[in-house]
Amino acid sequence: VYCSLTDKHLIVRISPKAGANGQIDVAGIGCPGPLDNMLHYPRGIFVESNQDLYVADTFNDRIQHFPRGKTTGTTVMG
């Protein structure tokens, strides 16, 4: 399950089977900013079948694409 932690400026993947240690940060670094590895109030997320991630990075007015396993995104719109 992928979740947008808007106030923490993060996207995480949570594995229900892993219990308390099942959260992995997949995008963002936990503080707001405009760099390719940062998010500023991420709201919407879309996960492709190959697990590439698209994030609506609200306060940066952009859509970021994060390829599977990468923590640096590319702006595809905005």
Order of helix and strand elements from N to C terminus: EEEEEEE
Number of helices: 0
Q: What oligomeric assembly is this protein in?
A: single chain
The number of distinct β-strands equals 7
SSE class: mainly beta
Content of β-strand: 35-45%
Structural summary, described in words:
Strands 4-5-6-7 form a 4-stranded antiparallel sheet, with no helix packed on it. A hairpin with an 8-residue loop joins strand 2 (about 10-15) and strand 3 (about 25). The termini are far apart. The chain has strands at about 1-5, 10-15, 25, 40-45, 55, 60-65, 75. The protein is mainly beta and about 80 residues long.
Characteristic terms for this protein:
78 residues, mainly beta, four-stranded antiparallel β-sheet, three-stranded antiparallel β-sheet, 7 strands, 44% strand
Write a concise synopsis of the structure shown.
The chain is mainly β and 78 residues long. It is built from no helices and seven strands.
List the helices and strands and how they pair.
Layout: E1 2-5, E2 10-14, E3 23-27, E4 42-47, E5 53-57, E6 62-66, E7 74-77
Antiparallel strand pairs: 1-2, 2-3, 4-5, 5-6, 6-7
